[in-house]
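Hi team,

Filling in the usual template for the complex we talked about on Friday. All components are listed, including any nucleic acid strands or ligand strings, so the model treats them as one assembly.

SUBMITTER: L.P.
PURPOSE: interface mapping
COMPONENTS: two
RESIDUES: 358
SEQUENCES:
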Amino acid sequence: MSPVSVAHSGVVYDALKRTGIRLLSALPETWLVHLIRMAEDDPEMTLVRLAKEEEGVGISAGAHLAGVKSAMLMQNHGFLASINGIVSCAQLYHIPLLMLISYRGEFGERDPWQTEGGGVTEDLLRALRIPFSYLDRPDHVAPRIAKAQTLALSANKPVALLLCRDLMWEDA
Amino acid sequence: MTRLDALKAIYSRLEQQIVVTIMGAVAAELQSIGHRPNFFYLQHAMGLASSMGLGIALAKPDRQVVVLDGDGSVLMNLGGLTTLARYRPRNLVHVVFDNESLLSVGGFPTATATGSDLAGVAAAAGVPRTATVATVDAFRSAFDEALGAGDLTTLVAKVEAVGPSGYVTDLSLLENRFQFQRYLRS
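RESULT (copied from the run log):
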């Protein structure tokens, strides 16, 4: 049984629904399994499973222009793999993009292969001037997702929320 | 066939379609025939035009979407063909102009010049309708069939590696983006 928190995944999912998100693109990773299942089981949500995360930038851009609110679910290594799309599609064309990024490789990480990407995630977000915040406690989740979405839409730019171990992992 | 002649052959059909193109020659040539508010030119982010088309097709299932792609761009997002096939938007026609080269950056050959078959890749990815055409007449009729088929189609049009002398037009990227958004939401 995965120690990824079902309850906290539900808090995140409900907050996304309340901000009007109706399309989620995702590439599975351990911390996201419950969120992806919730999207899959929700008839109101269009779930797009990707081959590589950068596709999600294009899908969200298209959905936004057509008036559908969307979000991307990905690991921070997926964020690394999406950077050209973020810069040369979302930022170049002033497209709001709500990115929920599982923050692997921070304090408490047990998998050696996650540690390098964890160490560069925040620096890259700052270098790209992407506003970001942390989802590390359940009571932060709904207001921070709502505020992130508000800024993304008013500024027409990508924003990021880092899904932290303290929120996502039951024995953090 | 030149890409410009191919575009002219289908231009009248694009009036009622939502059109997303890649950067470079495709964008400049379509604009040279005549820009319309329902045309969006993704002037960078190579590979993502088909992903944008998928996002629009899913968001607007009652409208038809035409993506005008290129061999270099598709090769940068081959995985995207599997995502397209997986969700199989029946309202999307995916045209790939294959000139077997990266024309706008010096004409260096792409992998289609050495035998990679993009219609074959799309079919193997699960795209239900695929074809490769090499003449304007064959392109026009295959495009019309795709519009009428009501299913996802990847249509590869083999074109000469010739293009316009320049790629910058007087339509600014953001003007195009907001005009297109207004069109899609109206």
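MY TAKE: The interface with chain B takes residues 23, 46, 48-52, 54-68, 70, 84-85, 88-89, 92-95 of chain A (CB under 8 Å). Helices of chain A lie at 6-18, 33-40, 54-65, 76-81, 83-91, 115-127, 138-155, 165-168.

Thanks, L.
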